[in-house]
Amino acid sequence: MASHFLLLGILAIVCSTALASDPSPLQDFCVADLTNPVLVNGLVCKNPKIVQAKDFSFSGLNLAGNTTNAVGSQVTPVFVAQLAGLNTLGISMARIDFAPGGINPPHTHPRASEILTVLHGTLNVGFVTSNPENRLIMKVLQTGDVFVFPQGLIHFQQNIGPTNAVAIAGLGSQNPGVITIANAVFGSNPKITSDLLAKAFQVNPYVINLIQSRF
Ligand SMILES: *[C@@H]1O[C@H](CO)[C@@H](O)[C@H](O)[C@H]1NC(C)=O
Hints:
Blueprint: H1 2-18, E1 73-78, E2 92-98, E3 103-108, E4 114-120, E5 123-128, E6 136-141, E7 146-149, E8 154-159, E9 165-171, E10 179-180, H2 181-186, H3 194-201, H4 205-213
Antiparallel strand pairs: 1-2, 2-9, 3-8, 3-10, 4-7, 4-9, 5-6, 5-8
Helix pairs in contact: 3-4
């Protein structure tokens, strides 16, 4: 009996470490019923008999995002919230538009690796490895170049070309999540106290107050 529990324990550890992305589907598809109030890991399935082609489709990625904002970029997501048929499939995508000089600020996706293709323009992209190295891995990408951002790591893109830039990202989750570092740290609600952040960032609290006032 005890050995059974040991075996189950080992199995649980092996399985949990092997599942780095979304769980595998248990049926052909599970189109999300976005109106169902039941909360599960993922979203409740629509009755497969009433599913239509439009449940597997999204239109509009031909349209440029509006980059007139503080960072000069716009992400147009095609996640499960926009394309219900992605539910349980472990993939999604996004279009990212950049004005000249625009950035997609340092952020991380808690549930997905990301593979980015530059459709147009020149992007400086990078990610930082975890502690203690915190090594910056960075590259300039031209049209047609592809770059991968490993799951969970902080990454960014910057348009360093003279024109607008456009990229398409594939992500390994139906709902990758986004944590924008500046917004999470300096723009949380309620705020993280400035004395705590002052110690974390090794600056005077007034510097923290100044940054917090911008979010
Ligand atoms: C883009 O966003 C800016 C700022 O919110 C707004 O003033 C402008 O009208 C928008 N442009 C378009 C084409 O929607």
